[in-house]
Design brief:
The chain has 268 residues and is α/β, with parallel strands linked by helices. It has 8 helices and 12 strands. The two termini are 24 Å apart.
């Protein structure tokens, strides 16, 4: 946190948790807390390390505390939280995945998912327009599904999805295609012919990982993105930059996701 500012913490503080398993790696509690306090709110974000088997009981417990206003969700709990919400956004209902919860008037939880919306907002800030573009997305898991939904409803004319788990890939392709705004097909790791290529898998975090998208097929006009935050510049992104591609990193994405989550928790 910014050391020049006094942390506001007392008995009137409103509490928000960020819950995951593990949790030690998350960097957001300080930034989210700072955002609340910069907005003039006496509110904090606190990490909670909760195993999947204990999630429902933990949520029921913290829900009894009348000063707990929100929950931010990280790996591996985003799908589990769909069933722990009384109400969700249309986006959350489609994805059956939630990354932020706030209270309804009756004390139950309302959930939404901002991973995809944050990614699309980050793309726009990097000058990448989706309108009429062909996009390739690798990864149909939690983050990948959310990004796929936001791309498919955000203006692309074609979305191709690649995932080693073909059952998961085909289910996502079919569900997104049924929405109707664009053509949705199964893809491969070959980005040839695409305007936008995005990795939404963890591949690239470990030294020696292959590039999740075939970087030998990148061209300078392609926009190349990734969800990985560590390393800060994954090898595939470095390869794209070397060719002159415009790129987007996981840190760029998370900055926008964090802002969306904070706005939602503040009731905006």
């Amino acid at each position: 946190m910014n050391s020049t500012k006094t942390l506001n913490l007392d008995g009137a503080s409103r509490i928000h948790f960020i819950v995951g398993d593990p949790i030690a790696q998350v960097k957001s509690p300080a930034g989210v807390s700072q955002a609340f306090q910069d907005a003039g709110l006496n509110a904090l974000c606190i990490p909670a390390h909760v195993a999947p088997a204990d999630l429902a009981a933990w949520t029921a417990g913290v829900s009894l505390s009348k000063n707990v206003d929100g929950i931010i969700v990280t790996v591996p709990h985003k799908f589990a939280y769909f069933d722990l919400c009384a109400t969700t956004s249309e986006r959350g209902a489609f994805l059956k995945s939630i990354n932020t919860l706030r209270r309804n008037a009756n004390g139950t939880w309302h959930g939404d998912m901002f991973d995809g919306m944050g990614y699309v907002r980050a793309l726009a800030l990097k000058g990448c327009s989706l309108q009429g573009k062909r996009a390739l997305l690798v990864g149909a898991g939690g983050a990948g599904s959310a990004i796929a939904y936001s791309l498919a409803t955000g203006g692309v004319r074609e979305l191709a999805i690649h995932d080693e788990d073909t059952v998961r890939r085909d289910a996502l392709v079919q569900r997104l295609a049924s929405l109707g705004p664009c053509r949705v097909v199964a893809g491969s790791s070959d980005p040839t012919g695409f305007d936008i290529a995005i990795n939404a898998t963890p591949i690239g975090m470990k030294a020696g990982d292959p590039h999740p998208i075939d970087s030998s097929k990148f061209t300078p006009s392609m926009f190349v993105g990734c969800v990985i935050t560590a390393p800060a510049v994954p090898p595939m992104i470095a390869a794209a930059r070397a060719l002159g591609c415009n790129t987007l990193t996981g840190a760029d994405m998370f900055a926008q996701v964090k802002d969306l989550m904070v706005e939602f928790l503040m009731g905006k």
